[in-house]
# Entry
Amino acid sequence: LKPVDVERLENALQLVIEDEAEEVEVRGRALESVGAWSERWVTAAIEQAFEGADRRLRISAAHAMGRSCDPAWLPRLFDELENDDAEMRFEAVGAIGLIADESAIAHLIPLLHDEDAEVQATAVAALGEIGGDAAKEALEDLVAAGNPVLRELALDALSEVEFAEDPLSFSVRGEDTDATNGTS
# Structure
């Protein structure tokens, strides 16, 4: 996009987010879409939505926090991991995975046993995104635990971790292949 078009887009999205007469769902989606922008007004909009009373906007703010990839949001997201609302836990876990800070691993491990299957699955994926020894260990424990659905998700997440550790090689379930020389 041309700079002038980016500016027009930014202005339009900001107006939508700030327009309280606009549908909440539209405002929330606009907020989610600008989450990755490192503009002061975006941070302020995320903050305002997250501190507000509207459930839908709070959930969108959590999503936007993840898109920002800013670890400064982690303490707030950690608090939401205990929220009674499964959708908020789901968004908080997903956001934490996008931020991908190893300090989050200990907060995510209990969510592997959440009452909500989508929260569990997102916690598995988040651990795969974050990687590191502690995440790997938690995922390996999940593989050994026996739940076939979580086992499959954990195997996929372990593949993500292994790829991040060594992107020039990859593993296809049970078959190791070195991409640099094609050997198994």
User: Anything to note?
Assistant: Strands lie at 169-172, 175-178. The CA atoms of residues 45 and 75 lie 18 Å apart. Residues 176-182 have pLDDT under 50 and may be disordered. The two ends are 44 Å apart (CA to CA).
